[in-house]
Design goal:
Length: 225
Amino acid sequence: MTEKKNIIIIDDHPLFREGLKTIIGRDSRFKLVGEAGSGREGLAMVKNLKPDLVIVDISLPDQSGIQLARELRERLPETKIMIVSMHSKIDYIAEAFQAGATGYVVKESASERLIQGLEAVAKGDYFLDSSVSHSVVENLMKSPLKTAKITDSDYATLTPREQEVMRQLAEGLSSKEVAEKLFISPKTVENHRANIMSKLGLHSTIELIRYAAKLGLIDVDLWKD
């Protein structure tokens, strides 16, 4: 009998973690041994339990999941890392693989693709929401990332969650849609929005969109007819 692969989930959305736990629990090849809601807590748990696989969200309250993936790769090179994120832009994907992840699943399709991704990553293969060949991902990893445009000092004052909310609002999502994606209340989204506008000195959604586009945070093509 094949030994079960131990998994730890690092994601700050309790409802989403519950969904992942349910999916993993249905498959006898995998066993959830821990879950954490922050990067610091997750790193300590992984160092202690040394799981076979770690599922990491990009947007964590205390640090980027990309940076956490780098730390995990440095400290526990044998542990496989799968990123599960709401972001599907190529920049995020490229940076995730360069940081040491070998799997990347978009949250919207996690219910259908999670187990397939875990299977691939556990075997040492790459996985990108579909069967992506090693050569494709290797070329992606070798490609230089675009020079970051995020140099605005005001943007740096935003918390990781505020940055996440800002991107979603700038891409045209309503407060309700952002709330559903992030598993928070619309009121919380509105509070984040007010803080974002205040910190950045912005006064309208149009100004927010222009600001995000200037920093390269969103695809301008999203707003073209």
